[in-house]
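In response to reviewer comment 3 from the previous cycle, which asked for concrete evidence that the modeling workflow produces usable outputs, we include below a single protein chain processed end to end. The sequence was submitted unchanged, and the resulting structure tokens are shown without manual editing.
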Amino acid sequence: MKLPGITSYGSYVPYNRLTRKAMGGGRGERAVASFDEDATSMAVEAARDGNLENVDTLIFATTNPPYAEKMNAAAIAAGLSLSNSVRSMEMATSSRAGLSGLLLAADTAAAGRKSLICAADVIIGAPSGAREKSGGDAAVAFVMGSDEEALATVLGQASATTELLDVWRLPSDAFAKQWEERFGAIVLGPVCVDVAKRALADAGVEPSALTTVILDASNKRNIGAVPAALGLQKEQIADMLEANVGRTGAAHAGLVLARTLDTAKPGDKILVMSAGDGCDALVLSVTDKITSQRPKRSVDEWIASARNDLPYNTFLKWREILPFEPPRRPDFDRPAAPSAQRNQHWKYGFYGSRCSECKTGYLPPQEVCLTCGAVAQMEEEAFSNTACKIKTFTLDYLAYTLQPPVVSIVADFDGGGRFTCEMADVDPKAVKIGDQLEMTFRRLYTGQGIHNYFWKARPQR
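The workflow returned the following structure tokens.
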């Protein structure tokens, strides 16, 4: 019997950091999605590093979907240029949805499908509360397929579902609520221990053989009994990135798993657990393909590429918690559905065109070549992963943005193609002609309740 396994993966940690000192006290910092990022855009960023060839199933997990009713996975599929025949589904309402989605992807892979699971979250907590300080924003993606091409195979798994009033949020609530922490630990502690033992038994792996154990929970006490129950050593327990990222909700177990895979060696055994209204557990064995199938950027590289001087009041504005004077100009127009549909490949996949006669590139795509005059001789080409550099730029202090000024640039792409766009994740004082850039999928604005996704440029991270 063929075992399912992870064939590729990717991660994404936003550029901005907010220190806990700026939030009123505490050590370290949390990752903060920018004003133009959400769970959908971050999921696209994480999945871009994966090998998406022949993916036929897309699973999206988040507790903070940009749309409450509309398939957010459809925008992810479009942003990644997946086939229109892809099957898509979404998992939400619990921060263990990310690991649950990974288990589901393993099951579909065992049935012969190739699944992409994206988990992303923007964690919002009440000002000065524990969730705000301990939370963080990030995304992770895994492609699950057969063990023949896997960098880590699934050896075993186990789950439990427990009705428990621990963390909850009504549709009308701005912030989640949490019960007194000791109560959840009393109920979920034995459940997590049982799930861990069943997963290891299913895998045929002894606790002492585990290289890394990832223990994720909204309340650390809920899963805190596992190390002692399994007789684990301190060096087996993974760093849960509390100091420099924060707990990233549905993405967190997967994010720590991706970081573990970044440095794993063939033969390593990994136990991943996530607790919340029950518990999920997964046991993986790293294969010799790990050294050749790692993503372009590691989790630690994303973490290191950061700016941690975000003001607290700016963070509150981005999350629409702090009231502020709106711009003295008309609201954004609603994106037009017919135009978006006609230009879907360009708008979401960032596909331009290249003349087959003289090889001149064009963004947006064109039918007539301005260089050689050829008509209808264009070939479609993706530019989303093509490096570019600043040809010229301007700083616009009049255009409205939640992070002024707007940095507008003309970008020249490697191999040809020129495009005018905004920059993201940039210090306006540091922008220079000739700077190397890369493209990033963002939410340009929301007009009349409709999110307008497109691409911006950012300094290479």
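DSSP finds twelve helices and 21 strands in the chain. We consider this sufficient to address the reviewer's concern, and the full set will be provided in the supplementary archive.
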